[in-house]
Every structure is written in structure tokens, then in C-alpha cells.
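Researcher: Re-running this chain for the archive, since the previous output was lost when a drive failed. Same request as before.
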Amino acid sequence: MKIAFWSEQPEAGTTFNLAVTACTAVLLHPFSAAVVSGGYHNENLERKFFNDSGWPSWTEELKWKPETDSALAAESEEFFVSRGLECLLRKEYPEELTERAVKANLRQIIKDRMYCMPSCVKSEQEWWHQDNLFLRMRRVMNAVESYFDVVFIDCGSKQDDYTQRLLRESDVCVLNMRQDREHIGDFYQNPPKYRGETFFLLGKYFEDDPYNRENLQRLYRVESDRLGAVPYHPQLQAADQRGKIKNGVKYCMDQKVSGNDAGFAKELVRTTNLILKLAGMID
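Model: Regenerated C-alpha cells:
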């Protein structure tokens, strides 16, 4: 099951919305989930969940082994440098992409249930989707999907051929937008056509804005179960900056919260469940 998040507008909060929705889905339901980038270089996704720089460096790992010789050190350097997606892309044969190999190259967000795939160090260029290693991306994605109930894919606002293929192949395409008049009309009236279901998602949402869900449904005749929102929440935004978005979502979902937090949680639960329902994961 693949759920892709994408926006034709830069800075629509696509990665943030994905991170919040994915955490909510796992906290609400007994699913296993992976969050991955729709490219090979996207540190922004990983930073939503971790406030460190990634895997431990190979030199730190070797400190407790004073007898290590230079050959082993070089071997270890290669291993730790190529952790994550890069390591999986270097697998020569599909059968090497076992569940153990895949999960060893992901980082746990929620123990045994939610993982994030670290991106490659290499930066993307105009030709990135033609890179020899990246040509193996499809089989890596297929392997990840086979070991998790759902894979959330962050496509950002990319326009390349690979992104369009991901959107066509996904079971649900979540189209992210800002809550402003300039772009909303065109986005609703002329949505991209994909094989899977299409869901509209408003980021940094304010209920008292003229373009709230109720008015948008009436104005553009959007079905209520195709439109959701992630309300603006300053504490969650702060948690995002610290790489603690899972903790922030968990706090907001706590049954003890009240007032603005309760309203936020209600909207977030509604949106997440609508997306999962479109994907056929819940009734």
C-alpha cells in the first residue's frame, strides 16, 4: 500500500503533513509503516523525526576496538557511509533485499512499527533519476512496501518523471496546498488524474479563515470525504524544529488534552482516517 504526498506549490508543508499524518495513523491503528522520500536525497524528511545527524560515524563505532587494523577500518567506513537507502541501492540482486536487510537500513521511529528511510548523501542533479544506482530505486520501493502495511512517500513539489510515476502508481495521492485563494481554485477544479484515489489536504489550516473546509466544499463542490486539514499548532511546529514530531503528535493525541489541542486532534484524526479509508485500510 503506497500513499504519496505531493504539491504543485513549493513550501506547502508537504513533508510536515506527511510526517504528522503517518504518526497519527500508527498511533491510531495497529499498522506498520515506513516513511520514505520520493528521491535519493531528502534529509528534510529524516529531520522531522530525529534531531541528530543520522547513523553513528564509523570512527565512533570503532573506538572500542583498539586492535582494529586499517583494512577493517576501511571496510567499516564503507559500511557506515553507505547505510540507509544508498546501501539498499548498492545491492546487486533483488533477493538481497530481505526484510532483515531492509529494516537494518531504516531508522525506528516507533519500535517495530514505524520506520524512516535515511536518504543518500549524494545531492540530486537534473539527471538524478538517470543515475545508475537510482535505476534500482523501484525494486527497493517494492521491497519496502512488501514488509510494511503502508508506505508514506514524500514527493515534495517535484515535477520529474519519476515523481509522476510514483503518483500514478500510488493507491492514494494526497495533494497538499496552502490555505490561500491564489492557488486553491485551480488545484480543486483541475486536479491531476491518477490511477489511485485523490485526497486534498490543507496545511497550516485555520478554521476561522474564509477558505475553511466548509466553504471550500460548497464553493468547489468537493466531497467532504476528499478534503482534510492539518491545523496550525505552534507547539507541534516547535517539535518539528527539534526533530521530535512523533512526540508532538503523541502529546496532541493524548486523551487528556483539551481546548485547542482537542480541536486539533479531532481534525487530524478525521483527516488521517479519511486517507486510510480511501486506501482501503479501514472501513
